Amino acid sequence: MSSSPLHDPFAPPVADAKTEIKKTTCYMCACRCGIRVHLRNGEVRYIDGNPDHPLNNGVICAKGSSGIMKQYSPARLTKPLRRKPGTERGAGDFEEISWEETFSILTERLGKIRATDPKKFALFTGRDQMQALTGMFARQFGTPNYAAHGGFCSVNMAAGMIYTIGGSFWEFGGPDLERSKLFIMIGTAEDHHSNPMKIALSKFKREGGRFISINPVRTGYSAIADEWVPIRPGTDGALMLALIHEIIALGLYDRDFLVRYTNSGQLVNLDAEHDEFGMFVRTEVPEEEGCYDPQNKLWWDRNTDKPVITHTEGADPFLLGEFKLPDGVAVKPAFQLLQDRVKDYTPEWAEGITGIPADTIKRLAHEMGITARDQKIELPIAWTDSWGKEHDTVTGNPVSFHAMRGLAAHSNGFQTIRALSILMTLLGTIDRPGGFRHKAPFPRPIPPCARTPNDPRAVQPNTPLDGMPLGWPADPDDLFVNADGTPVRLDKAFSWEYPLSVHGMMHNAITNAWRGDPYKIDTLLMFMANMAWNSSMNTSEVRKMLVDKEEDGTYKIPYIVVCDAFHSETTAFADLILPDTTYLERHDVMSMLDRPISEFDGPVDSVRIPVLPPTGECKPFQEVLIELGTRLKLPAFVTADGARKYKNYPDFIVNWETAPGSGIGFLSGWRGKGGEKSIKGEPNPNQWEMYAKNDCVHHHKLPRSYQFMRNWNKGYLEWSQRNGITRYSEPILIHLYSEVLQKFRLAAQGKSITRQPPKHLAKRIETYFDPLPFYYEPLEVQTSDKLKYPLSALTQRPMAMYHSWDSQNAWLRQIHAHNYLYVNSQTAKDAGIADGDWMWCESQWGKVRCMARYSESVEPGTVWTWNAIGKAAGAWNLEPNANESQQGFLLNHLISEELPAQHDGKRFSNSDPITGQAAWYDVRVRIYKAEEGEPEQTSPQFEPMKKYPGMKEHPSLLAYFGGGKKKGGAK
Amino acid sequence: MTQLALVIDLNVCVGCSACVTSCKEWNTSGSAGPLCDENPYGLNPTGTFFNRVQTFEIGQYPHSETLHFPKSCLHCEDPPCVPVCPTGASYKRKEDGIVLVDYDKCIGCKYCTWACPYGAREFDEKAKVMKKCTLCVDRIYDESMAEADRKPSCVKACPTSARLFGDIHDPESEVSQAIREDGGYALMPEWGTHPANHYLPRRKTKLKIHQDELERADNPLKVDGQQPKPGKGESSMDDVSAW
């Protein structure tokens, strides 16, 4: 038969091609892997992982491998666009304008706002990875109305952990799987920090580690778990508390760790009449200058049976018991209060709430406790603790955890995550080998030092905001409220309603602006946030708000500017569209001032360097901000006489410093005139070139003795302070018991010397600001008819898609062209729904028609679907009959951004009452089969989106071949 | 004789599809490309992929498993697609056992699709020829690449390194060792095709807890006086036994 082959598989497919490999950083998701972009004759031929990059070590995911289809996507916007005069907002009729005209329009409009009332300009951004710059722009402008997407993403995870252990998962810390023996993953989005997690998980499993997944659904990572523990959504707090109960009851906690490194032994004032009730008892120790958390609390020493200052040499505190101080004040150690708290949180109690058998809960606690205690690691690393004690080794208790939105996106998430952090602490696993490890710039003091202003006078015409737009309140006096206690911010963040909303509350910005509560605004600028679709709760209603008018015919939100690279649903609602570049066309920094890509062993930051010129008229949003800031003469961007200070974004990044001569800027690598300094140093004019030569990444490896126990590691903390990473170098004791929360509770009880909440919010604050974690049913569930709506509804993130971004991607959409509602087979059968049937899923807020898929990998009380696969017809330049809009659906239509009205008609955000975290996963639903004869099409449907000027036609057949005509081969 | 193959470790595959698209992006612009996509932005998009991940659920809730199963041409040692090819376009390379299609000989008759029991072949609707995994034959011998890069694109991409690549006839190779020691198996051996690619099964790690591990002498509760010794007033054998 066969003779020698005609087709030579080894011949170069393009003769005499000019090839080039350029390194930059991926942005197909927020993971930020190092990539190599292979160009052939100027076109992208291949993108692979950079083997020399510390984050991904050369691997790449499905999204990263599909960057080509994003770069050349027909959904790209290529020209600045203005809504055609005389057309309705939302209709999608745009005309092309020049950048000069765009900047004139913006400068005039924003200039007027800034000169009169800067808070009428609101800037909200999505998962942009440049919050240090966008936040700075807002501050310079003088508006408090700035936030990124954190409030509707995972702020509970950040806040719950940072207010407890001084660091949190993902960018700021994570499980040390290299040394761990037991790993417990709880409710984790699979598109986040994904490659490092995948690399670590695989090694961990191969080295014989035991992996337990706690999740209502068994997909991606959970699929390879040694054990899957299904749990009812929103009940994780009950599980954590029962685990704590069991671990304390059996004495499986690490006592030595608790004594020295946490506030477990500190004595709490229990005199209910006292102003300091519930606060730690303090002695008169002269406060050191600039001290954040003076070491002036007391232990009850077991050796002398007397109160002593904590960490007194030779003392060992009781963790349990009740004592009376010489002045008669009754006190208990914090740990005793925790034991009291969890007394009734038995595994049997938790079984009824979580659906996990009590015996399983007990076994989980035993596995954690015994592994932590009996498989200890001792690394021969000498270090000195904050109290001057020298240690010959670093000890590790090899039990680690990872969790994300599954815990966070509930209105009880903050306290749940406090409980998780405390569980991790009881096991003695914080910043230790095999446990949780910090990543710079964390750990930080609890809470970190940044503050918003606390006075409405911080907002003044033609003046930068006097404080950060986002910060970390330490007590009620840090809230950003008016004299009458009402919010200063549009989204009501940092108000008495959501005091610790440290990432803002973007999910309420549109509703509040539309309603004029707390006030109306003029211009809303949204960057890279699909707020008219998958990033909003209550999508159908939010779309109406965006086009709603006053009686005089003007829009309730007068002016909307959208910056995006793509034809998202939100762009249709813009009055002005700014076409952003892709990640391959711009400079970017993953900065230590923002969310860097640090490793456990030290700070890491990185950059993007353009590998291709911008498409069409696309302009990076960074350049837009620098230009706009310069034209508006915002002080950071102009010289004293008002002249342009920075040529462009790269110039800004090199030369801007936090304060003149501070040596701290956006990038920490190759600072100093010749690039000889790291972390801190004078601006280096060749900094970008140095990054380019070094894989676009700067990795500052700490000495081994600074890599562990960093909350209390004298050497590390002093290094961190010297390098301007933290302001203080005192030990960061873990807040098993949270005085911050108690201060809010005291204020609500009218006992504090701080500001006190308005009367109608006092009860709310008093209830939720509990200094010890507790379990409560999520707020929406409390107000839902659970008989009528018996099921929980959730979304999961597919690993091959990032939010709404990838339906435009010809390759990725073939993996997920539409989504199903996954229903436990028995639950579906009981509802008379067959596999593949059209069905309705309905909440108290709305309903969607979708297709059912039977699943054995979901607990019977939960239905779920992939997030953001469903699209509006015509959006992302897909054909109006594309699967995404006809069979794909969005669960957001079922979820409200607000809770049902209270007696006074007022509505709280559907959020955690402590942090304002959007409670996506609290919704309750019922399911039923669609009627015979109903259209086999998703509902609701919207008028198909139009194509805008400057967008490409999409081909009916794609035969991508990067960089030239192919010679020979295919016929 | 060398037989190159993939060994896919289902114990660590999380179903992320990195192998699917990294394969597509390499091969669409490579010697086998372009790999076409029909209706790329419309209804029912469908394109040529050499590698796909299927997801199965096994068992009944709560004792269910979710399995991600990447699948591509298995480069059979006795490939049924080769003898059925009327033009000799389907061939197996002697030097490394890779099964290839000669696109210049293929007439698109699809006999090989019917012969392949694994559904591993992909018809290219534009070129009207059959295509399939080449084990990146245009990478693995390319000396212009760094040695670390001379691997199939999917192997290099895989974030969990679930895809091992090597010579299964060399007993010392990583792949042979994995097959031998971790229970590697071939798909549908009853067909007698002797697939070169193998799969490694799930392996579970368990922890056995002994009751006495819960009652240790160094229980920290004792330090705080919460685990008192039995009271002297309680009954003991001392009360009744005299010797």
Q: Any overview of this molecule?
A:
- The complex is a heterodimer of chains A (971) and B (243).
- Chain A is of the alpha/beta class and 971 residues long.
- Helix content of chain A is 23%, strand content 15%.
- In chain A, the strands form ten sheets. Chain A has a seven-stranded mixed beta sheet with strand order 5-4-25-24-23-6-7, covered by helices on one side.
- In chain A, a hairpin with a 4-residue loop joins β13 and β14.
- The longest helix of chain A has 18 residues, at 99-116.
- Chain B is an alpha+beta fold and 243 residues long.
- Chain B has helices at 18-28, 111-115, 137-140, 153-157, 174-181, 220-223; strands at residues 4-9, 37-38, 46-47, 51-58, 65-72, 90-92, 99-101, 122-124, 129-131, 163-167, 198-200.
- Chain B starts with a strand and ends in a 20-residue tail after the last helix.
- The chains are: A alpha/beta (971), B alpha+beta (243).
